[in-house]
Amino acid sequence: MKNIIIPNENAMLEFGAEISRMFPEQGKGGIILLNGDLGAGKTTLVRGLLRHLGYQGVVKSPTYTLVEPYEINGRHIYHFDLYRLGDPEELEYMGGRDYWDENSLCLIEWAEKAQGYLPEADLSITIQHFGKQRKVAVEKNKAKHN
């Protein structure tokens, strides 16, 4: 596990860009779990990742829609916010499995709300906030990255 201190919003955007470099290729999918309290910076990290991949539009948390799809240079990226999920089975009803393929990059906030309904993650990122500063723990799934 790698721990990082992120001092401000710009550094979180750059950290998102750094994470995008771990999934650089079109057709290279992955599952990234984003853990942290409200306001921790999960969506800011996603914004940095998407910007680095070339997306220039507005990036907001899909709290009410549960998933926001992006297509960037022919690549499918899905940003999930499962905060409002009442029951993990709801993810199944909305066709969750349709998103988990080797060509899609899925960024999942509040993954604990869908425990048992998500595929194994490639990367798990936990963000804790202390004022404007963030402590970020990054854990790679060793079984998927050998």
Could you give the topology of this structure?
Elements: E1 2-6, H1 9-20, E2 30-36, H2 42-53, E3 67-72, E4 75-81, H3 89-93, E5 104-109, E6 123-130, E7 133-140
Helix pairs in contact: 1-2
Description of the molecule:
The chain has a 7-stranded mixed β-sheet with strand order 1-7-6-2-5-4-3, covered by helices on one side. With 146 residues, the chain is α/β, with parallel strands linked by helices. 20% of the residues lie in helices and 32% in strands.
Any descriptors?
146 residues, alpha/beta, 7-stranded mixed sheet, 3 helices, 20% helix, 32% strand, globular
Order of helices and strands: EHEHEEHEEE
Low-confidence stretches: none
Backbone shape: globular
Specify the oligomeric state: single chain
**How helix-rich are the residues, as a percent range?**
10-25%
H/I helix tally:
3
Using only CA atoms, what is the Rg?
A: 14 Å
Number of strands: 7
Largest β sheet strand count, sense and barrel closure: 7 strands, mixed
State mean pLDDT (0 to 100 scale): 88
Structural class: alpha/beta
Q: Summed up, what is this model?
A:
The protein is α/β, with parallel strands linked by helices. The chain is 20% helix and 32% strand.
